[in-house]
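Entry 14. Structure prediction run on the chain below.
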Amino acid sequence: MITLLQAAAPPPGQETAVTLHGYSLPDNAAATSALSAALMAELPAGSTFTPPPPVRDMDILTWVRRGALRASAPPFPPEDLTDEWLHAVGTAENGAPPLWQALQDSSLIQFHILPETQDSAPEQSVRPAFTALEDGGFRILASGFPEDDPEDNPEATLIITDGAPLALRSRTRLLHAALPRDEGAAYQTTPERALFVLVVEGAARIGETPVRAQEAALITGEENLTVIASAPSVILLVDSSLTPRSLL
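Output returned:
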């Protein structure tokens, strides 16, 4: 089943210098997954952004679409990010919410993911862009599957320099594809998964369903996904478990 999702602006009276658009995920048992929130924000230079709650006890993935940001997530040290870098930080149940400061006009896309294990310590890590490694298909940027990156590094703050995915605390993946016009990317998953496909730039088709720039599609009940670009496109894909949140 495919459900199209459009980015929604905040209600009137809640506007700020930061332009925030969120994707409303279906709140029913059949679509409940580890992906708690997906949003897109435009930050003028000098502005700061703190995502709307809940943000505690989450893995927060921030992909810099363009610009330069400074991520501050105590107790971890600040991290400076730029175009197509990925920042991952785990928040504690009683910790201070993280914030992002725009060092210049910037755009970010953020995913909030519920951890599956309550006893795992939050971590922070950063993955620079590795455009030279992209092959046109989906590439894993972050994952909670050990087989995606068997290296075990105990450092609390990591800079990933070899193209390996950032570590998550749930069986979830974030993937990226940059596709020329009329080319596609395929992905295979397992039953009882939810696939959140966001067309960051360009336009694409999922089967017979067109998805325009900044639109998303939530796909359930499918094990195979093929995205065909109708124009040069950038795609982000989140593959998360359909386990009820009460059991995560």
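The CA atoms of residues 136 and 231 lie 13 Å apart.
Filed with the rest of this week's runs.
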